[in-house]
């Protein structure tokens, strides 16, 4: 599994109805995309849930790097986004764990993204093991639909992505509204309990 995320920050007066319409028309196109585990079509709106910006910020869990490549540079859909907004910087992480939540995935309405660094003097194995334990506890929380953990060994940063049925707790990270969820291969990524 690989995690991927990019964020397009839009002008403060941007009409987010344009993004909502774009997702409504184009979101279902990835509902059966080969190699894709999950794509969460996420937005932040200035003044909503504490956001200071308007942003379109999809998050992906890929079942295969080939699927990710097909999407990014083999005509799989990214070119349309680049044509509309320019080419954003794309972050990617090696997947560590993906867990189903206490609430069905079909009820997801919000997402959170939280990043933390592993200090240079800390053994990454221990830090990642602790993060996995926290992930399992968070996945069992009421309203949790899915929790995923990934790491970028370039700068030793962990990222935790969660989907929620209702507005998440403040400590959960940056809060996004979920507009659409494509999940053709998610069952193959979720670890058994």
Provide key terms for this protein.
35% strand, alpha+beta, eight-stranded antiparallel beta barrel, 22% helix, 10 strands, Alpha-Beta Plaits
Uncertain residue ranges = none
User: Which CATH architecture would you pick?
Assistant: 2-Layer Sandwich
Task: Report the biggest beta sheet as strand number plus sense, adding barrel if it closes.
Answer: 8 strands, antiparallel, barrel
By secondary-structure content and strand pairing, the structural class works out as alpha+beta
Strand content: 25-35%
CATH class: Alpha Beta
The helix fraction, in percent, is 10-25%
How many H/I helical runs? 4
Shape: globular
| Count of the separate structural domains | 1
Annotation, overall tally of beta strands? 10
Overall description:
- There is one protein chain.
- The chain is of the alpha+beta class and 193 residues long.
- Helices cover 22% and strands 35% of the residues.
- It has four helices and ten strands, in the order E-E-H-E-E-E-H-H-E-E-H-E-E-E.
- The chain has helices spanning 17-26, 65-73, 78-85, 124-139, and strands spanning 2-5, 8-10, 36-44, 54-56, 59-62, 91-100, 110-117, 144-152, 157-164, 174-182.
- An eight-stranded antiparallel β-barrel has the order 1-5-3-10-7-9-8-6.
- A hairpin with a 4-residue loop joins strand 8 and strand 9 (157-164).
- The radius of gyration is 16 Å and the shape is globular.
Helices and strands in order:
Layout: E1 2-5, E2 8-10, H1 17-26, E3 36-44, E4 54-56, E5 59-62, H2 65-73, H3 78-85, E6 91-100, E7 110-117, H4 124-139, E8 144-152, E9 157-164, E10 174-182
Antiparallel strand pairs: 1-5, 1-6, 2-4, 3-4, 3-5, 3-10, 6-8, 7-9, 7-10, 8-9
């Amino acid at each position: 599994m690989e995690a991927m995320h990019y964020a397009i920050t839009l002008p403060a007066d941007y009409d987010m109805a344009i993004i909502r319409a774009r997702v409504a028309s184009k979101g279902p196109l990835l509902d059966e995309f080969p190699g894709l585990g999950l794509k969460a079509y996420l937005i932040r709106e200035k003044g909503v849930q504490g956001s200071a910006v308007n942003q379109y910020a999809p998050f992906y869990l890929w079942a295969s790097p080939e699927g990710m490549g097909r999407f990014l540079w083999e005509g799989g859909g990214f070119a349309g986004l680049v044509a509309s907004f320019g080419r954003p910087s794309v972050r990617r992480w090696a997947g560590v764990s993906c867990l189903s939540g206490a609430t069905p995935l079909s009820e997801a309405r919000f997402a959170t993204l939280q990043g933390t660094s592993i200090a240079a003097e800390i053994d990454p194995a221990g830090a990642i093991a602790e993060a996995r334990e926290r992930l399992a506890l968070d996945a069992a929380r009421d309203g949790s639909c899915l929790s995923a953990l990934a790491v970028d060994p370039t700068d030793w940063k962990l990222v935790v992505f969660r989907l929620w049925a209702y507005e998440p707790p403040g400590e959960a990270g940056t809060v996004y509204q979920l507009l659409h969820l494509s999940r053709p291969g998610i069952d193959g990524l979720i670890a058994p309990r």
